[in-house]
HPr kinase/phosphorylase
Amino acid sequence: MDAIRVGALLDDTKFDLRLTLVAGKQGLSRRISSSRIQKPGLVLAGFTEYLHKERVQVFGNTEMSYLATLPRERSVEVLRSFFGQDVSCLVVTKGLQPPPEMMAAADEAGVPLLRTSHLSSNFIESVQNCLEDVLTAQTSMHGVLLDVFGVGILLLGKSGIGKSEIALDLIMRGHRLVADDIVDVKRKTPESVFGAGSEIIKHHMEIRGLGIINIKDLFGVAAIRERKKIEIVLELVEWDPNVEYDRLGVEERKFRILDVEIPMLVVPVRPGRNMTTIVEVAARNHLLKLQGHHSAREFQERLNRAIALAPGGRVGEIDVE
């Protein structure tokens, strides 16, 4: 999402913003497009060059005390100048009562004037968390997200290939479900994406023949997670004897989600393959790679050295197929 309305902050219940509208009701449709907050103290002294209009503006005890020292005529002039900069909104913290000239200037400019009982530092932290949660890039995907040995694994594959059944087996082995069927994905940093379950079907799973089951009720709170970083994408495909699947794992594939590249594995499914164990081993192997040990590459290097040292062997790199 690129921006949110100022009015959405008044409706928030998740981040305990404690906001009430004081003046400028006609401006609640103004938009906030940045999660960063600004305390524009120097603007009150007339320096407006670095005023960021797309941010939430915050007046705390310092700014309000400074305004109280000004003659009324000067205070009116300063406040009209500030609200005339077309800012998105102004929040007064610590439960301080805005003076009449501030409310009049906000109404005149059509800029929402809000008040919160939080201290400035507490409110800034809360509203930044709120805006980061709302403004971050997000999408939804069809798949199953699990926490396996602490590794976030997103199972992909066409409907009916067995994603939910594999997930259920993993849960019975002590691993944790994050989302089934619909995975809501958000990019938290430029290099990481997190997945969570949809509010409507969170903690639920569809098993053909059984119907909808509630994992939290069946297995307890230890069997679920609310959110998890996606670290591996594992795509399940039907076994095709005419396709040459990766047998070494030297070259790593990538899957792009919200412009973030994530390691990807393509695993063929056929009767007799223990898919649950394969997923567990994929998680263990990922943890090993994070420790700097790449089993496939280390094997290839040992094989190359052995061939180079063998009588009649060719020195240098070889391609192992």
Observations:
- The chain has a mean pLDDT of 89.
- The chain has nine helices and 17 strands.
